[in-house]
Amino acid sequence: MAVSTYTELKASIANWLNRSDLSDEIADDFIKLTEADFNAKLRIRQMEQIDTVTINAETVSVPTGFISVRSFYILSSSTKYPLEYITPHNMFEIRGGSRSGRPRSYTIEADNETEQFRFGPSPDVSYTGYLSYYKNIEALSSSNASNPILDKHPGIYLYGSLYHAANFLGGMDPAAMERCENNDKQDSYGGAPVVQRTDVQTDLSFYRNR
User: Fold this and answer.
1) Percent helix, strand, coil in the chain (nearest 5)?
2) Terminal CA-to-CA distance of the chain, rounded, Å?
3) Residue-wise over 40-70: b if at least 16 C-beta within 10 A, else e?
4) I want to staple 53 with a disulfide (CB 3.0 to 4.6 A). Which of 49, 129, 136, 199 is the partner?
5) In Å, how far from its chain's centre is CA 58?
6) Distance CA 77, CA 75 (A)
7) Which pLDDT score is estimated for 96?
8) CA angle, 110 as apex, 107 and 114 as ends, to 5°?
9) Do 10 and 145 form a contact (C-beta atoms < 8 A)?
10) Domain boundaries, the chain
């Protein structure tokens, strides 16, 4: 049977388990646990998001559904100023007390499980930041029948739900999730070879003149 919607996925779970008495609440739990696995393990293009961030204080809340940063920069007077990530420990070492100005670096902290960006130096005026980041997938529900993962990779949704439904089935097929991520990388970079680049310039004249 086709598995392209939330309703079809729940029906398929019940069919594979041979459980016609499987309640919607239990099936929902299996799906939610599978989506938690996706958010913890998958990093594919369909999870990428670009948002603007108003940087008008030393600390600013991360966007809803935030997982991790891909790139972050400030746009001021048509000029892009990349923000460099540093660890929370280093942030407090280099902040320079109460010094303020255009932020040059950021870190990520958590306060009572609420994540936030901390900028250094503290902004002297309001700046507009452009944040590219990985975001939690949009969870399936009665009001959201599908999402890009169910549309393109219904198998890992089904296998993951069955894993959480019955451990004896062997669990989520690790190769299925790996194939999903590898296929996405292949689509992103094609067949281009990996080239290592460095900003360090090496003077080879000594070796050439020997």
Assistant:
1) 40, 25, 35
2) 73
3) eebebebbeeeeebebeebebebbeebbebe
4) 129
5) 24
6) 7
7) 52
8) 125
9) no
10) 6-42+138-178, 47-135
* Residues 6+ away with beta carbon under 8 Å from 131: 50, 51, 52, 53, 63, 69, 71, 72
How would you classify the pairing of strands 79-82 and 127-135?
A: unpaired
Q: How far apart are CA 76 and CA 187, in angstroms?
A: 33
- Confirm if 9 and 143 have CB atoms less than 8 A apart: no
What are 156-193's pLDDT values in tens digits?
A: 999 999 888 875 444 455 566 676 677 766 665 555 55
8 A C-beta contact, residue 105 and residue 83: yes
Q: Tens of pLDDT along 68-108?
A: 999 999 999 999 999 999 998 888 877 655 678 999 999 99
Where is pLDDT greater, at 130 or 91?
130
Q: In the block, which residue shows the tokens 């990996």?
A: 194
Structure confidence at residue 207 as a pLDDT band (50, 70, 90): very low
Distance CA 50, CA 32 (A): 25
